[in-house]
Amino acid sequence: MTISPHPMSSATTAVLCSAALFSHLVRFQDGIYEDIVPFRHLQGYRKRFKDSEFDAAGLIDVHIPLQPWLALYGYTRLQHLCSSVGRTESMLLYGAYFGDVELLDALATAIPDIYAGHSLPLAEMAIIGGSLRTVHYLRTRQFTFPTESTLYLAAKHGRASIVEHYIPSSLSCYQALRLAATGNHVACVELLIPHCTPYFLSQAMMLAVRHVAIDSVRVLYAGGGRLFSEEPLVDAATQGRLDCLEFFLAQDETKPRPRDMRQASLTGAIQGNHVELASHMLSLADDVFVEPSHVAEAMRHQSVAMVELLWAHRETRWRVDIMPTWVNEYAKWMDAAAQSGRLEMVQCLVPKGDNTSVDWYKILVDATRARQAQIVNWLVESGKVVSDVPTLEQLMVEAMDPSKSHLKTSTMEILSFVKSLLPSTYRLPTSVVEEAAKNEAHVFRFFIDLWWPTHDLETRASVGEACLLAAAAGGKQKNVKLLVSHFHIGVTSAVVDAAKQSCSSKNLIAYLESCQVE
After folding, report:
1. Which residue ranges make up each domain of the chain?
2. Is 170's pLDDT higher than 80?
3. 3-state class of 474 per DSSP?
4. Residues 250-272: pLDDT tens digits?
5. Sign of CA dihedral 231, 236, 241, 247
6. Considering Cα of 37, then 43, then 45, then 50, what sign does the dihedral take?
7. Which residues are CB-neighbours of 470 under 8 A, at least 6 positions away?
8. Radius of gyration over alpha carbons of the chain, in Å?
9. How many C-beta atoms lie closer than 10 Å to residue 363's C-beta?
């Protein structure tokens, strides 16, 4: 079957043959940069380059669209990519990092003064990228970098070819070794070891252990490096790693005693709050002991699991000086746990010490001040504190502290809980409700609702006026409106004057003046 094409309309023909469309198509073929390669500009790269500002992801973003374009068109149409300063800089940084010397040279040909007009860290980018050829090329373009700094930067990023080239001309290789070791760049470490003294090898070993660069540790040890202190093992265990400890324990020659290394690793495990690791260390050998600082660290982390683990070993692994520390610090730890709202920790500690040494009333007050409603409820319901009226009143006063006014939910939880414990005949002191008038609206509403039903009309009127005066002087507009509109307290000139003298908001003053009783 033959399908005859429909003839184009005259309008379509006119558009396709128009000079405007033709010129647009030609321009597209000639290169419109935003349509051909939509890569983003790399920003933040200037002459004073900071290694911390290096953006590898940004360079990858440029590489993804640019590499296929270069493979297709080569270096003959670079002017279309360099239509702005930002794109030109991105091209230069790309070429330096990915070691594309041909691109850098082609850019210099297409734009003769391109290197004269930019203060980009091209040499640094070439070093980080790892192309020695590019580093040499950029030197011919006056992009140089000090020899020592070149070695350090290459070692930090694991660029072995550049490290090997610059070692003979470097005055000191230790800085480069420590950077390579902490980065776990084994090839660079192997190159630098012969150029460092045993002392510097031991220093690099300490850093490698601290950073848990286990491959560097093995290479340094084989090259004569030794660990002369167990302290770095603390840092390794803090990160939850035992690789380095296991390596050194497996060696015939270890300067720190195995017991000291195990003890240091236990300390690190506790400092890092790694319960399983700490448990493993305690089961590894009988010469590992719990120290007072270990218990203090567990308390600092508020880790119930760690405290339970250490407590379980109190008969066999606690040093003799721990129990006095436990007794002396027990009440402080209990108070700290309560103030931070860690009910599990409080309940964990209760059976592990002398409760008669604990001032439970103080802990209750401190927990209320910290707005730890869960702790307050538990202390009262468990019978740790007697919930008599004076105690409950004190809790209400503490919960009224305006410094914690942002903790509305927990404040109201505590106040509601206290209210549920008050006897039905309870009468709130007038001084408390007057003080509450200076507080946030939700707090004042609680106290005025508790106080109001238990007093006669005359007392309500006089106390209401005092509360209105206090609220106006404190600039509490919501409290003022509540007293005026809901409790029908009249606004006097004294109230208006109090608001003006305290520099209250214009809206509050205007509201009071509109409600003022003549």
Report:
1. 31-145, 429-518
2. no
3. coil
4. 987 777 788 999 999 999 999 99
5. negative
6. negative
7. 434, 435, 437, 438
8. 38
9. 24
